[in-house]
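REQUEST FORM: STRUCTURE PREDICTION
Request ID: SP-0412
Submitted by: Lab K.M.
Chain count: 1
Length (residues): 225
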Amino acid sequence: MTKHISKIEKLITEFCPKGVEFKVIGELGYFYGGLSGKSKDDFSNGNAKFVTYMNIYSNIAVNTEINDFVKVGDDENQHKIEYGDVLFTGSSETPDECGMSSVLTKKVDEAFYLNSFCFGFRLHDKNLFLPEFLKYLFRDEQMRKQIAKTASGVTRFNVSKKRFAKIVIPIPPLAVQEEIVKILNGFTELEAELEAELEAELEARKKQYGHYREKLLTFNERERE
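STATUS: Completed
RESULT:
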């Protein structure tokens, strides 16, 4: 890990000797809303894919292999999600779970729309960030603390876009972003491998437990006499 940090520090010194620049998010792009004017019937026989609340909540990168459809007419003025857009959940039962993010990291040919309980953020300059970097940035612990402060409510908490626009984010050089993505992707892959190994280990332990349980609770005829 120390090796990775040293490399990032070296890149920062090389590309931004005065330190990484920070800006409020409202200066870097704009927010847009999800689907509007939709009835229940529009979701029963749809012709276009839409990203659900749970798709955003559960994935740091939008899952595009989905079967969630909505009916959208050619004359409708609905926001389409674009490559690099950051999507957020708009509300939750606790402020800590508000504003969970997911980024469209794949270039898709078909149109994707956004759930009405969510909102999107689009950069004015899409060359400023790597989408793969943004998916990690907005799930970072410090960033999550900032986002939680934008929510208010009593029984259900809602994100204030006005407060959200004041969140401060770093803008590291693309070379630094690329290196961070490389490192974090490596950890993610390792974590997935470990989880798979642990699941296999757990399954083996369950079988072992079942085997001994059977042995302990099965008595032959002689033992019964």
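NOTES: The helical segments are 2-15, 53-58, 131-137, 141-148, 161-164, 174-217, 221-224.
Reviewed by: T.R.
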